């Protein structure tokens, strides 16, 4: 609790001395003050995470101090024993909690520790928000891990180079988001970005979708239709699930990538196109080539440059950022001020995400809709995470404190940075001295 600063105010020196000793023993940084005028001055000059003040004092009352506190400070009012009216009034005026005089020290410590946990969680969330704001590099791609920084570097490097790109990665890793980011960071950004999913279009219609058709070219062709190559002219065409393209159609796509010419079905007219082609797949195309499901010559045409997106379980340190980012989106969508508890976040960080970011977002959205209030807790996942899996992760999460979560987060960042302390401290937004202190404190190796 060494980062939590507390101001204790009471006109009785014996009272502040006792409370100070108790709190210092708990590891808090404590300032005691017996003059409420001086206390007000201290509050104006410095920030205190928690202010503990007596209600009845000469000069300035505890209620006046409460009304003039920093909005981010938590205020605990000390009231006379059995003074329910004073306690209720202080809570109405923004007090976090109250304690009765004479003190029950055990109850007092519990209330201060609870306030400190809330402060620590708020700071942690603010830290995640800061990291998110500084590393939210390309629209909806969120990440601060070493692997995602490599993706961002890749995007910057090749965005303005007019080559075909192949994006590989598991389902739900954000391949289309990366394709859009490349387009939006290129000199083609003011021109169309057109995307199709090769697995979602029936084989007999895919050729028409790609190259277009003229009226009467086949049954049902009642009017002229441009293909996606023409629609994306001077822009970017994204072909998702390219491995699902029929083998016979791959030869026609190969021809287009060699000549950049297309011919609509039923037409003899050849049209020149200028397209940046980005393809994506969740399959291993080299295995597909061996199995004669994908043309090797087309592979080399599509993969002039290739990048593989890391699955979520290889960048666990990004989960808090993704959660925070998506909760902002859901808050606007559902008209709620959504938050997540430490225990719930721990569950998400310990979950195996086979569906990657897409699955995580789906769990968050369902949990936000079904939650009875604005805070997502472990209970919120009962309809979204299988009971067996939730039982396993709950066992882990129930034993995870804020300290454990911080330890887990720092360790993961260090691993992602291959124990490069300078890089890890930059990701964590702390100085190296603090990082070394945390490594020692948590015995990280």
What is the fold's blueprint, element by element?
Layout lengths: L4 E5 L3 H13 L3 E5 L2 H10 L4 E5 L7 H6 L6 E7 L3 H9 L4 E5 L3 H31 L10 H13 L6 E4 L6 H10 L8 E5 L5 H9 E2 L11 E2 L1 H4 L4 E5 L6 H13 L1 E3 L6 E3 L3 E6 L3 H6 L5 H7 L2 E4 L10 H16 L4 E2 L1 H9 L5 H15 L4 E2 L10 H12 L3 H15 L4 H8 L3 H10 L4
Parallel strand pairs: 1-2, 1-3, 3-4, 4-5, 6-13, 6-14, 7-10, 10-13, 15-16
Antiparallel strand pairs: 8-9, 11-12
Helix pairs in contact: 5-13, 10-12, 13-15, 14-16, 17-18, 18-19
Core attributes:
single chain, 445 residues, alpha/beta, Rossmann fold, Helicase, Ruva Protein, domain 3, 3 domains, 5-stranded parallel β-sheet, 16 strands, 15% strand
Q: What do these coordinates show?
A:
The protein has 3 domains: 115 residues, Rossmann fold; 165 residues, 3-Layer(aba) Sandwich (Rossmann fold); 129 residues, Helicase, Ruva Protein, domain 3, CATH 1.10.8.60. It is elongated. With 445 residues, it is of the alpha/beta class. It starts with a strand and ends with a helix. The chain is built from 19 helices and 16 strands. It has a 5-stranded parallel beta sheet, with helices on both faces. A 5-stranded parallel beta sheet has the order 7-10-13-6-14. It has a two-stranded antiparallel ribbon with strand order 8-9. β1, α1 and β2 form a beta-alpha-beta unit. About 4% of the residues have low confidence. The longest helix has 31 residues.
Uncertain stretches: 131-137, 387-399
**How is the main sheet built?**
5 strands, parallel
- The dominant shape is elongated
- Share in helix: 40-55%
Please give the domain count.
3
Class per helix and strand makeup: alpha/beta
Mean pLDDT: 86
Fourth-level CATH superfamily of the largest domain: P-loop containing nucleotide triphosphate hydrolases
CATH fold-level assignment of the largest domain: Rossmann fold
Q: Return the CATH architecture of the largest domain.
A: 3-Layer(aba) Sandwich
| Distance between the amino and carboxyl termini | 23 Å
**Share of β-strand residues:** 5-15%
CATH class of the largest domain, named Alpha Beta
With helices defined by DSSP (H or I, 4 residues minimum), what is the helix count?
19
Strand order of the largest sheet: 2-1-3-4-5
- Give the strand tally: 16
Radius of gyration: 30 Å
